[in-house]
Amino acid sequence: MKNKKNRATSLSTGDCDSINTALRSMRRFREMFVIGGYTIQPQIIHVNRLTGNQRTSALHAHRTFEFSVVLDGGMTYHAGGCDIVCGPGDGIIIPADMRHGWSVSGQFAVVFGFMLFISHRGGGADTFRENTVRRNYFLGRNPSTGGVIDRIISAVRERPPYLDETVLCLSRESYLELFKTLVPEQTPSAGVNDRTTPRNDDSRNIVEAINFSIHDNMHRHIRPIEISRYVGLSLNRINTLLKDRHQLPLGQMIIDKKISFACALLSDTNQQINEIAHAIGMTDIGYFCRMFRKKKGVSPTDYRMKNRSNGAHG
Questions:
Q1: Do the strands 65-79 and 90-94 form a parallel or antiparallel pair, or are they unpaired?
Q2: How many whole angstroms from its chain centre is CA 149?
Q3: How far apart are CA 9 and CA 114, in angstroms?
Q4: Does the pLDDT value for residue 18 go beyond 70?
């Protein structure tokens, strides 16, 4: 336990960014596969050290399940009317399309997360989702999952041969541990099915992957070329897709998402304007205020006064 804790706390924000950059460049772990009666399509694996301006999130939702494990520090997740307190080693699973938020308990937290589509394949009850709700989204501690995550971090930092394949195998091992927790009655013979199928790259999933990447890097300056590399498509193709679906190019989408996130923080938290600007990766406060007024027609301060939620926190 001591070594695991030291390894987690040794991850600086820069270390996390470096690990996430390496993970975004990988393709194999996103391949679709089957566990028992469920189809799994991973989208993102990431690790974040949350501190400073990243101590509170606005309420948001994803089309995927969000499976996270706290490596160090403490987190409180807000989902389904519950406040779920997690300490080191605790896991949590947020269902697809559920609005949720989180806040850091203490000075910082290190969190490892997976975002993945999970689809029930056949008849009968969807035991995975039922047990997720029954447990109030709290998974507790699973030493096996913690060990797998530790090995993923070590592999990405050490860059051994066959790194993509290593992360593929380890990530699937973590998903299998997740299913053992939530679907314990599944027979051992219905484990991971290694007959993978290509990733479904329809336009909806591509846009979702772009949204994931923007949200995952909200706290820093995001270059469109980084997202292009992550989704494996040229900027021209991405811009054509976004213009067809949303009437805007990628660079504009990044700014719109950041301003939308800032709006939520202005409405739902008591963070200072400069803290919110830094939380969305805009270190020039003047630029942030100009972009905000351009998009919303009012200053951040005026927006907060008009849209302050009754249940503001922070």
A1: antiparallel
A2: 15
A3: 20
A4: yes
Query: Rounded distance, CA 201 to CA 23, Å?
Result: 18
| pLDDT band, very low/low/confident/very high, at 120 (cuts 50, 70, 90) | confident
As a whole number of angstroms, the distance between CA 101 and CA 55 comes to: 11
Asked if pLDDT for residue 123 goes beyond 60, the answer is no
Contacts from 189-198 at CB under 8 Å and sequence distance 24+?
A: 190/35, 190/36, 190/37, 191/35, 191/36, 192/33, 192/34, 192/35, 193/33, 193/34, 193/35, 194/33, 195/33, 195/34, 196/31, 196/32, 196/33, 197/31, 197/32, 197/33, 198/31, 198/32
The 10s digit of each residue's pLDDT in 84-107 is 999 999 999 999 889 898 999 888
DSSP class of residue 190 equals G
For residues 22 and 211, the answer to whether their CB atoms sit within 8 Å is no
pLDDT tens-place string over residues 155-180: 999 999 999 999 999 999 999 999 99
CA dist 134 and 88 (Å) reads 22
Do residues 231 and 24 lie in contact, with contact meaning Cβ atoms separated by under 8 Å? no
Query: Alpha carbon of 267 to those of 89, 191, 279: distances in Å?
Result: 32, 45, 15
Amino acid at 114: F
- State how far the Cα of 138 lies from the Cα of 80, in Å rounded to an integer: 12
Contact between 125 and 173 under an 8 Å Cβ cutoff? The reply is no
The DSSP code sequence of 113-165 is EEEEEEEE-SSS--HHHHHHHHTTTEEEE-HHHHHHHHHHHHHHHH--TTHHH
Question: SS3 of 41, please?
Answer: strand
The two tokens of residue 205 are: 């999933």
The reply to whether the predicted model has a pTM over 0.90 is: no
Contacts of 208 (CB under 8 A, 6+ apart): 43, 63, 64
Long-range contacts of 223-226 (CB under 8 A, 24+ apart): 224/250, 224/251, 224/254, 226/24
Beta strands in 170-251 (DSSP E): 192-197
